[in-house]
Amino acid sequence: MEENTISAEKACSFCKEVMESPESIFCNHCGHPENGTDQQRAQYFAKRAIQKNKNIDAKSKIKSARNTLFILAGVIAIFGFVGYNSHGQVLILGIDLFLSIIYLTLGFWSEKKPMMALLMGLLLYITTFSILALVEPMTLVRGIIWKILIISYLGKGLYSASSIKNQVN
Ligand SMILES: [Zn+2]
User: Fold this and answer.
1) 63 near 75, Cβ under 8 Å?
2) How do residues 26-45 score in pLDDT, each as one tens digit?
3) What residue ranges do the domains of the chain occupy?
4) Rounded to the nearest whole angstrom, what is the distance from the C-alpha of residue 113 to the centroid of ligand 1?
5) pTM
């Protein structure tokens, strides 16, 4: 009886883990069709390759979104200082520096928690320019292309971060 179970033990040829049931088609660790057909094996490797490409793509989108946060932090700080120099707007400089620090923090935080950081960055961006638009409606159309670009970069990064997260779960 004992000998039987030992001889029946089989390791997956792909991940080298011992399979729970040696007769089952798919490895319970990596999903490799150990006892499957050549076609199943080909499909398995094709799927893996596609998934890998998707992950590389998702990571580059998250990186673009992170850079967007850093650029926002820099641009807002510069605008604050320019406004302060030309009009002496201390309050606006203070608000701009505060926002700049938040974007900078979110940028660094997005290394660890990309989904949360990018979501907060996007919400903060939309909130601040909505408030600005209420105070001064002309700001809504000013630099509209930049606004669309920023939102799309942050949005794509957020979507990619959520797709990677779902995959892990
Ligand atoms: Zn395996």
Assistant:
1) no
2) 999 999 999 999 999 999 99
3) 58-168
4) 30
5) 0.76
